[in-house]
Amino acid sequence: MDDNLRKKWMEAIHNDILSPLYFANIENFPYNENNPFRPNYTKVAELRMKDFSAFSYPKAELREYILHIFYDLLEPFHIEICKMQRFIYAVCENYQDNPFHNIFHAFSVLQMIHSIGEHVDKYQAYLDNRDRLALLISSYGHDLNHPGVTNAFMINSRHSLAIRYNDISVLENHHAATLVHFLELEGCDIFCNLPNEDQTYMRRLIIPTILATDMARHKIVMENFAQTMQNFNRENPTHRQHLLDMVLHSADVGNPTYKFDLATVWSLRIIQEFNKQVLQEEERGLPVSEFLRVGNEIKKIKQNQMGFIDAVIYPLWKLLNTHIPQTQEYVESIERNRKMWEELEKL
Questions:
Q1: Gene3D superfamilies in the record, alphabetically (predicted)?
Q2: Is 323 a known active-site residue?
């Protein structure tokens, strides 16, 4: 990729979001028909870990890990290795360099869902392989081309995307549409060898699963999941969709489930992004999202984190754990982190 061209493109989207960056002529991939991909079992073991630190690796190595996550699904769905690598690369390069909503967040959500799946027999009690593939694809692209601001900012600034999506789940619609667009592009069309009905099925799963990450849908996602799991039927597509929604939504806000030092890094990054948005709102004369004004005082950071855990994270993951007991370790981490924030005097 031409770094100068990418820099110009990134500068161009500083105040707006343009069409995604995509290079169809990328061919220089490590794996092809003559050099088939074989998993590295050290990486396989690492991807099962609960506290995988994405920040420890450059993007190129994260893409290698991502290929490992999808490895067992390539053959069943006739996914060509070059197209998979191109798709992984294109999505990776279309995450912006935000403090929080970046490729490292996307990878972390994908890896968390994969890790949980490795401990629940790849979700086989709940999903078929098409559902699992859709869940993993959705998690990788769930924040694709995120601008680092909230839906409220997009609406209040009368951004073209807010107009396009009628102020409804603006960013989530944009992420889903961009991801589906990539899946249709020649060279990134990893589903091209599937029957048309299967390609349509994948799209019908991916779009609502990403839309479920809108925090405005937090309550309904939990309610649908709780009701569904009272009498879960794997043959019921609505039941499977509710589980997909819950798993991705939980992982999307799952950084408080990490060990405390890693969770804190993510917390400070989202606070940085929030503080930056408040400044932009003030500079542009937009309604100011005062609840995002956390600043850098430890007292206010503590209140912010404990409040978010109490109101959102703990009830969400507690509900998930009620029906997927293998997530108990995640709930215990949330409890420890809540206590650590309460006791923290300086940062």
A1: 3'5'-cyclic nucleotide phosphodiesterase, catalytic domain (1.10.1300.10)
A2: no
